[in-house]
Design goal:
Blueprint (H helix, E strand, L loop, with lengths): L1 H13 L3 H12 L4 H8 L5 H40 L18 H15 L3 E2 L5 E2 L1 H4 L10 H5 L17 E2 L5 H10 L3 E10 L10 E11 L4 H16 L6 E8 L2 E12 L6 E2 L4 E11 L1 H6 L8 E8 H9 L12 H7 L16
Parallel strand pairs: 1-4
Antiparallel strand pairs: 2-3, 4-5, 5-10, 6-7, 7-8, 7-9, 9-10
Helix pairs in contact: 1-4, 2-4, 3-4, 5-11
The chain binds 3,4-dihydroxyphenylalanine.
Length: 357
């Protein structure tokens, strides 16, 4: 019996895995195991012998069973420790920079523009993409016969035959959000309105859907000087340069008077754009003082209030800042393009943390 005990307890202590333990269990206390066979022999013994041997065998069986389960637990604990060591992870480490999804340049630039104007007190306003022709045109001082209507290659929504109301349009610019913001908030007012706009046009620099951002500030004594300062601050922050020359070129828009197109000084030396130096000028936006008729359309009294407005192409300024040559590729959903021009989702643009790096 002592030999049996030593043999099994040593073997159990040495077992390297659960399978080895199971084999030992079968050999020792399984139906035909050594100890079970010994127990069967009890029947052939005299009652006196049985009284001595019975309890001894039972005790041995119990001892081996508990050694087996203790060892089993030990093996499971060791396996768990091993796994915990192997799968240890420092969740405070920065995320890996290799990423499968990226932020689209249009989203990135919209965030950048929003961050810059938010810092100057502009809130974000939105309007519908399917717009009434009144908001898109008439309210902006573009009457029915005006050539601007034809110039904009407008997409018109369908009307049932016999329905004589003017059809809704896919907004051709973000300027109707000026009207909606004035209707909704009244004066004073400071908003930017980024969003999608639509025109029937398609080539390297035109797609039927693109993005604009509108700006509108209405207050008691707002002048062109305020417009100029705001735009200078914007261009410096957006292109991440210390200084820029802006050129205000007299222009015409129905919804502003006076109107100006704004160019920035730049150089194209070596084929890359540098903002703030050189002898070239690049047009980046349209702007002006809000036309009194436009204020009136927004229920604001032009005798008491005035304001400035501007509008620019988000895709266009994205192409300029990030050196993207073809607008059409913006909307191809080509993963290689998105990986190349996309931005990490973890780098949220802020003025303090940096817009693009
Ligand atoms: N809506 C004009 C366009 O799409 C851009 C524009 C020009 C907006 C002058 C303005 C502005 O607010 O004042 O071409």
């Amino acid at each position: 019996m002592d030999d049996l005990r030593d043999k099994y307890l040593t073997a159990i202590a040495d077992a390297g895995d659960e399978a080895a333990l199971e084999t030992l269990r079968v050999q020792a206390v399984g139906k035909k195991g050594e100890i079970s066979l010994k127990m069967r022999e009890l029947g052939k013994m005299t009652p006196e012998e049985r009284q001595v041997m019975g309890p001894k065998l039972n005790a041995l069986k119990d001892e081996i069973n508990s050694a087996l389960s203790a060892k089993k637990q030990g093996l499971a604990d060791a396996a768990l420790d091993e796994r915990l060591r192997g799968e240890w992870l420092d969740v405070t480490l920065p995320a890996r920079s290799r990423r499968s999804g990226t932020i689209h340049p249009v989203s990135q630039v919209s965030e950048e523009v929003t961050a810059i104007f938010a810092d100057m007190g502009f809130a974000v306003a939105e309007g519908p993409q399917v717009e009434s022709d009144w908001h898109n045109f008439d309210a902006l001082n573009i009457p029915g016969h005006h050539p601007a209507r034809a110039e904009m290659d407008t997409f018109y929504m369908h009307r049932d035959t016999g329905d004589t109301r003017p059809p809704h349009v896919l907004r051709t610019h973000t300027s109707p959000v000026q009207i909606r913001s004035m209707e909704l908030q009244g004066a004073p007012l400071r908003v930017i309105c980024p969003g999608r706009v639509y025109r029937a046009d398609y080539d390297q620099t035109h797609t039927p859907m693109f993005h604009q951002v509108e700006g509108l500030a209405v207050d008691k004594d707002i002048s062109m000087a305020n417009l100029k300062w705001v735009l200078e601050e914007f261009v410096k922050a957006y292109f991440e340069v210390d200084g820029v020359d802006l050129r205000f070129r007299a222009s015409h828009f129905p919804f502003t008077e006076p109107s100006a197109e704004v160019d920035i000084r730049c150089s194209w030396e070596g084929g890359t754009l540098k903002v703030g130096e050189g002898d070239d000028w690049l047009e980046i936006l349209g702007s002006g003082m809000v036309h009194p008729k436009v204020l009136m359309a927004g229920n604001i009294d032009p005798a008491a209030w005035q304001g400035f407005a501007f509008g620019m192409g988000i895709d266009r300024i994205a192409m300029l800042k990030y050196g993207i040559p073809d607008l059409r590729a913006f909307f191809d959903s080509d993963l290689r393009w998105l990986r190349h021009y996309g931005f990490s989702a973890l780098d949220v643009p802020t003025l303090r943390g940096g817009l693009s790096r």
